[in-house]
């Protein structure tokens, strides 16, 4: 039974899927301190949060069973991604569900700041009938500058066009063709600062976007410009904005997000009549909260049940077309990794993965993760496809990928070579239609064996009677041989024997095998 902890008032309708799942129990909690969460987190397989709960390194360290953190929303700046990746915890988000809600709040803010709606409301309910102070401006024919033309920025642009605004966008990933298609002009941050009547930001908060609008940009702005931030606190320099309002450059601002949330009681935004503030409400619509909770619940279930998932933040996304090609190979890849990891002694220096045949021409990185996971899981605990590459790198294991379009015998072939300081070994496998996964080569020896169950890999010199000796010893100790393969290059030369057995070979029997003078090496594997 999987235990899921749901925090921060995530929509009940959205988590119905988890409540209905027979293999899941759900606990709902809110407002826990870091220490309170640390005290209970070891019980849980999954944690679901909005932006309120900070999932810190200390929480991750206490979360011994945790497989997944689900963020019901876009931004994952409240989750320590590095700590999650190191521990193999998948972090997923729901990138699409609250786009429209946040876009609409941005528009509401833009209209509010154009017409001073909250300020006028406050006076009116206070008994004043003030029709002189609140003369606003129209949006039509005004220039809107948008920094960040992703999901939300693009939706804002679409609506602005309908309002008759001219839109200038800045986004490193916005091509001229796409800009033209959506009717947006391209501009730099400084060009936008100089030309816009309204500026709205829709980027993530990164080192590059922190204070992307600061004193130098305010100095370029036209008098009367209005500024909106419904993305992340810190993208606009708050103190520089207050100065620009005081100097008369900025006519008004509307903020949903702050450098520190909630802002301190003496934050200069809170008593400034030209700044409209809301408490991080961008995603707070019934529809958005249901959407994001449903999306995250689905993904959490996939991860708990070891099924394919898509929205992992600490793993690059894989297009469905690539995933469809690669997925059948995941088990083979992991087993090849386990095989070579268990048969190679000494510290691994390099893993060379070669793809041939139909596996070339696609980005095989996800499959490589399964292979590396298989190799490392022999030596390390808690390796999974999220942290496999990170663990390899942190242990100075070089992962090399090779692709060759030609595979002489098979339509597809995956080879894994492991290099240690003094040694190297290779295993290759394929997926045979109707037969499933097969190991087809071990070092220089061609073989044909299903990579399942208990295996014995024995290297020896090719002499008469050896197979009999091994069979007799195993038989006398009640170890039944299910299949056997022998491989050699030349008569009387070095050879290998690969046996599958119905049960694990006991340690003392392995010891007796190793003492047979004709055998060079004996490895027991479990796949
Ligand atoms: N207020 C809220 O409640 C709320 C709700 C949802 C999202 N958000 C925030 O809104 C922001 C946008 O969300 P989204 O879903 O549109 O994200 P998105 O990933 O679809 O778009 C972000 C865009 O920013 C661009 N970008 C990155 N660095 C940039 C830079 N240096 N200069 C210009 N552009 C840059 C990216 O290329 C991308 O196109 C995020 O910060 C998100 O956390 C806030
Ligand atoms: O209300 C929330 O959960 C925050 C939403 C928003 O900031 C996000 O990043 O998705």
UniProtKB/TrEMBL annotation:
Enzyme Commission identifier(s): 1.1.1.95
Record's keyword terms, sorted? Amino-acid biosynthesis, NAD, Oxidoreductase, Serine biosynthesis
Among the GO biological process terms of this entry, one is: L-serine biosynthetic process
UniProt pathway annotation: Amino-acid biosynthesis; L-serine biosynthesis; L-serine from 3-phospho-D-glycerate: step 1/3
PROSITE patterns per the UniProt record, alphabetical: ACT (PS51671), D_2_HYDROXYACID_DH_1 (PS00065), D_2_HYDROXYACID_DH_3 (PS00671)
Q: Which reaction does it catalyse?
A: (2R)-3-phosphoglycerate + NAD(+) = 3-phosphooxypyruvate + NADH + H(+); (R)-2-hydroxyglutarate + NAD(+) = 2-oxoglutarate + NADH + H(+)
User: By its UniProt entry, which InterPro entries does this protein fall under?
Assistant: ACT-like_dom_sf, ACT_dom, ASB_dom_sf, D-2-hydroxyacid_DH, D-isomer_2_OHA_DH_cat_dom, D-isomer_DH_CS, D-isomer_DH_CS1, D-isomer_DH_NAD-bd
Q: Which family does it belong to?
A: Belongs to the D-isomer specific 2-hydroxyacid dehydrogenase family.
Please explain the role this protein plays, according to its UniProt record.
Catalyzes the reversible oxidation of 3-phospho-D-glycerate to 3-phosphonooxypyruvate, the first step of the phosphorylated L-serine biosynthesis pathway. Also catalyzes the reversible oxidation of 2-hydroxyglutarate to 2-oxoglutarate.
**PANTHER family given in the database record:** D-ISOMER SPECIFIC 2-HYDROXYACID DEHYDROGENASE FAMILY PROTEIN (AFU_ORTHOLOGUE AFUA_6G10090) (PTHR42789)
Can you say what this protein is called?
D-3-phosphoglycerate dehydrogenase
Q: Output the lineage of the source organism.
A: Bacteria, Bacillati, Bacillota, Bacilli, Bacillales
């Amino acid at each position: 039974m999987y235990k899921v902890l749901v925090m921060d008032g995530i929509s009940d309708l959205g988590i119905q899927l988890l409540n209905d799942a027979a293999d899941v129990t759900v606990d709902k909690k809110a407002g826990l301190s870091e220490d309170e969460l640390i005290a209970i987190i070891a019980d849980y397989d999954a944690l679901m949060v909005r932006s309120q709960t900070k999932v810190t390194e200390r929480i991750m360290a206490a979360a011994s069973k945790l497989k997944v953190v689900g963020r019901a929303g876009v931004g994952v700046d409240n989750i320590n991604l590095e700590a999650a990746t190191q521990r193999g915890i998948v972090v997923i988000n729901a990138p699409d569900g609250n786009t429209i809600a946040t876009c609409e709040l941005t528009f509401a803010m833009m209209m509010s700041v154009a017409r001073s709606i909250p300020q006028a409301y406050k006076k009116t309910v206070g008994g004043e009938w003030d029709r002189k102070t609140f003369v606003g401006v129209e949006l039509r024919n005004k220039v809107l500058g948008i920094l960040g033309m992703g999901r939300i920025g693009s939706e804002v642009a679409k609506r602005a066009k309908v309002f008759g605004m001219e839109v200038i966008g800045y986004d490193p990933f916005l091509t001229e063709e796409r800009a033209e298609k959506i009717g947006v002009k391209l501009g730099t941050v400084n060009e936008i600062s100089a030309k816009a009547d309204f500026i709205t930001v829709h980027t993530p908060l990164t080192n590059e976007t922190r204070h992307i609008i600061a004193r130098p940009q305010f100095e370029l702005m036209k008098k009367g410009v209005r500024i909106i931030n419904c993305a992340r606190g810190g993208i606009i320099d708050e103190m520089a904005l207050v100065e620009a309002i005081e100097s008369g450059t900025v006519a008004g601002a509307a903020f949903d997000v702050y450098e520190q949330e909630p802002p301190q009681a003496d934050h200069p935004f809170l008593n400034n009549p030209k700044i409209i503030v809301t408490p991080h409400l961008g995603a707070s619509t019934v529809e958005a909260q249901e959407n994001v909770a449903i999306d995250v619940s689905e993904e959490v279930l996939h991860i708990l049940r070891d099924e394919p998932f898509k929205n992992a933040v600490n793993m690059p996304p894989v297009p469905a077309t690539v995933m469809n090609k690669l997925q059948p190979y995941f088990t083979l890849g992991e087993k090849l990794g386990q095989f070579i990891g268990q048969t190679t002694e000494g510290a691994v220096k390099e893993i060379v993965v070669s793809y041939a045949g139909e596996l070339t021409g696609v980005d095989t990185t996800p499959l490589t993760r399964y292979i590396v996971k298989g190799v490392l899981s022999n030596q390390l605990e808690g390796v999974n496809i999220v942290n496999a590459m990170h663990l390899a790198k942190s242990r100075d294991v070089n992962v090399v990928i090779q692709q060759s379009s030609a595979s002489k015998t098979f339509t597809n072939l995956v080879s894994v070579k492991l290099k240690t300081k003094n040694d190297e070994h290779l295993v290759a496998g394929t997926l045979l239609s109707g037969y499933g996964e097969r190991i087809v080569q071990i070092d220089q020896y061609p073989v044909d064996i299903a990579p399942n169950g208990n295996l014995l890999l024995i290297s020896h010199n090719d002499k008469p009677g050896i197979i009999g000796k091994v069979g007799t010893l195993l038989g006398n100790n009640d170890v039944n041989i299910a299949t056997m393969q022998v491989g050699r290059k030349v008569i009387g030369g070095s050879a290998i024997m690969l046996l599958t057995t119905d049960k694990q070979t006991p340690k003392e029997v392995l010891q007796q095998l190793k003492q047979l003078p004709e055998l060079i090496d004996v490895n027991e594997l479990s796949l």
